[in-house]
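Progress report, Aim 2. The chain analyzed during this reporting quarter is listed below.
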Amino acid sequence: MPQNAMRHHHIYLHLAEEINLRCSGMIITECYSQDKHCVIMHCEAPVGSSEADIELMMIPSEPFLLLKDNSRRANRNSADVFPDIIGRKILSCSKHPTDRIVFLQLTGAMLVGHFFGGANTSLFVLDADNRIIDYVKRSPQPIGESYMPSITYVKDFTECSNNENVFQALSKTGNCGALYAQEIIDRWNAMGLQQIDHSTIISDLNQESFEGVIRLHSAIMEESIHSHMAYVMKTNDGSIVLSCLPLRQEEEILWSGESWSEANRRFRGIKAKEQRLTAVRNILAKELKHRRESLEKSIHHLCDEETAMKRMEEAHGIASLLLAMPYPSLRIQEEQVVLHDGDKTITITAGKGKTYAELAEYYFKKA
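Predicted structure tokens for the chain:
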């Protein structure tokens, strides 16, 4: 799948809504980091025993956030972060309307996460005047400066060039992404109207298809935004994806449920397991290749009768020369032995401490 399925805009929307529903009104009692790029906030309800943990993992390749229960802080290798937010109440959690930005509104402060991926991934704290006062990893602006999130322009399908590929145009329209762009095409083709594939450009569409694709795009986006279910599935191209709605390209649903945090966790677990299996397969493939090459060399050696006979004759000749030494039972004191066969000089490794007879026996066996 061309796009990282876990980083679709609607996934962050649903995660923010889930955190808002669970944690609004809670007090942040602890905020720490015990893994690289990771921040965990422990929250407790002012009354009662309700508590929760919010985990923000700012990995450049795959930033995410989720709710956790019963998270335990490590006794070692952990450090307190964002001391200014301790004791503050969570008022709300929301997502930016056009970007992968999540706002955790607190009393007198705000925690902001840029889940863009790459070098622009960042997590920072604002004071009551929207000035940056602390951050981990990086800050979009220097400490003390005011922060104002920008509004990214979201392109409409009608603004795309007529020479643009329909699939690519849909992917860039309204934060649709490649996953849902394919779903739009699959649902459209299932209607039995003008067929669309990855080579179809916008100018190829007749008026009915053009308007129909726009309506279908809006319907699928609305369905995704208002979905109450999360799906972790394997698609027919072998990809593992996280989706807000069932897909026609689905081959197998690996998990489904109403918890977006659990879906995120399951998705990451399956992907990690898949990566480990791939690593094991690569190691096995490398080992099999090595064994195959060794076997081919052995077969080549066994099949090469002329070479084998020559080696046998050489070994037999060396053994005969060793037995022809004046004192075969004499122990060799040198690392190498120089033998003379007519005009030919042969130097062999002696094996210090062996007798000439013992060395000859070795070469007879080798022959």
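The two ends are 60 Å apart (CA to CA). Helices lie at 9-23, 166-172, 177-190, 207-225, 260-303, 305-323, 356-366. These observations will guide the mutagenesis work planned for the next reporting period.
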